[in-house]
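Cross-check.
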Amino acid sequence: MKSVLPANQAALLGKIIMPREFIELTVRNRSTGAAVIERLWSDRWTITADVQDVDSGGTVSATWLGAYGLIDMDPIPRVANLVVQRIEIRLMSIGVDVDRILRTYDPHQAKVRVWRGFLNTETRRMVAAAEPRFFGFVDEIDLPTAAEGSEAFVTLTCVSHTQEATRSNPDKRSDASQRRRSATDNFFGSAATVGEQTYHWGQAKAKVATVKPGAQGK
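Predicted model, tokenized:
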């Protein structure tokens, strides 16, 4: 069962909340390859809000750019297994920040983090820190250009971080590979020839007779 922060639980029971989604994208600078973190939330203005930090267990405060309430995404199942989840996040391409982020930077395989927070309907303030819902990567992106006078939706197809458990390591166990990690590490020094060696367990090694040159026929 998913645990909910006490303040959020009380607001849910009191029906005085408005859910909002918070999305963090770690995209790349197209020129340098450097990571750039961009943050959006599903409302109209820019705010500073807290979210739960899964890595530290505490909360972190960040600035979130308004995506004009047009964020839509697939339901995210709450499961406790290693099944790779796929969700679609849809954004209006007309949003200035949405267009800037996805066209200026490279969003392919960008790290995606999604939280859900709640606004108090009376104060319009966050009830508590937003809680994590989905961590993963952008697997596919559909970034259409809207025709004049029409609207277009950007669709990010994301896969959960459990996908990493399905990846295989193409690197081989070799002396050269190990020395790239540490030049003095010779742990795999005999890896290339060890399969050709014969071991004589529990018995003496058979002696191979040798014949001296010129001794044939004697």
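The mean pLDDT is 78. The beta strands are 17-29, 35-41, 47-52, 59-66, 72-73, 86-92, 105-120, 131-142, 153-160. Passed to J.P. for a second look.
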